[in-house]
């Protein structure tokens, strides 16, 4: 079932694209307004909007093309989320954190400390959840002894660190559990669970976006407007390799410059770079 807030965002997104599209047609100065609206629509509907702009050309009515591209983007995001293996990993992390919290049988006050993804390379990450345990009735060495005994009985591989003190355990599936004194909080303890490294959702999304753009690049490079296939190309194929190459360079800048977009950039650049190489080779 779609959450009301998410449904409202989807309707608002598609409505905004539709409004921009019709504004470009109805505002005075039709040509200039249409050009501005076209650029805005491509930006708003990335990556599907690039396929509309480059591959489908002017024969498809823009009043239909860009709203459909917006809907395609929503469907792609939903499919990526449904097929993302991190969904099961998130549930496994939550379950292990809950078991670790209750297994000590100590009266503590748990508070959410952090949750998210910890980078484990350019395209891989580890799902992380941690709690701040307050009002712990034992000093940390005694608390570590309680957890050490429990984790060893459960068959986990346990490692102990003395400086700074911490207790770490690994299960057969590669999940990591950790307890350590909370930095700057005397008498409080951090309980953390990390999933095994896996491809980040942003990398998967980048691959999906890159495949769509790569498809548009190949269509532009290999299909002429006079082809019997019936494609209407919106730009000449001669300038395509330079344009696509520029896109790959800009993507590489994003990969190197912003860690938060690095996984998406790597996924995006891989298929686009392959398409550019194919166009350069075949033209």
Describe the protein's architecture and organization.
- Keywords: Membrane, Transmembrane, Transmembrane helix.
- The chain crosses the membrane at residues 6-27, 64-82, 203-223, 229-256, 263-282.
- This protein is an alpha+beta fold and 283 residues long.
- The protein contains nine helices and seven strands.
- The chain has helices spanning 4-26, 30-44, 48-56, 62-83, 86-103, 140-153, 201-222, 240-257, 262-282; strands at residues 109-119, 124-134, 157-162, 165-170, 176-181, 189-194, 198-199.
- Strands 1, 2, 3, 4, 5, 6 and 7 form a seven-stranded antiparallel sheet that branches.
- Residues 224-237 have low confidence and may be disordered.
Shape: elongated
| Largest sheet geometry | 7 strands, antiparallel
- In round numbers, the mean pLDDT is 77
Number of strands: 7
Helicity range: 55-70%
Beta-strand residue fraction: 15-25%
> Structural class of the helices, strands and pairings?
alpha+beta
State the helix count.
9
* Cα-to-Cα separation, first versus last residue: 48 Å
Unreliable stretches, pLDDT < 50, 5 or more residues? 224-237
Transmembrane segments: 6-27, 64-82, 203-223, 229-256, 263-282
Keywords: Membrane, Transmembrane, Transmembrane helix
